[in-house]
Specification:
The chain is α+β, with helices and mostly antiparallel strands and 91 residues long. A two-stranded antiparallel ribbon has the order 1-2. A hairpin with a 5-residue loop joins strand 1 and strand 2. The N and C termini lie far apart (39 Å).
């Protein structure tokens, strides 16, 4: 992996958090993708469903599905919470 600074992309910061990724495949082809506003950026907001999907990624070892659902449920109600004790309690 090689990381290189790109002056054009750097000049866009902080309005954009631009990145370009080049991937060279074993057959020699190169795939390139540029993203100026990554998912979750104010100009490319993440939906609730996408956010929950990221949290529930199948490759995650912890927490389990039941615990993840509990944490998500509590997270969506944080603005109503008087404290965060429930988030800190073990399953």
């Amino acid at each position: 992996m090689t990381v290189q600074r790109n002056d054009e992309l750097s000049s866009l910061y902080a309005k954009a958090v631009a990145n370009i990724v080049h991937v060279t495949l074993e057959d020699g082809r190169t795939l390139t993708k540029r993203v100026d506003y990554p998912l979750g950026n104010a100009l490319n907001p993440v939906s609730d469903k996408q956010l929950e999907g990221k949290f529930n990624c199948p490759g995650r070892a912890l927490p389990g599905r039941g615990e993840a659902a509990k944490i998500i449920g509590l997270g969506w109600k944080l603005d109503e919470a008087k404290n965060i004790d429930d988030l800190m309690k073990p399953a």
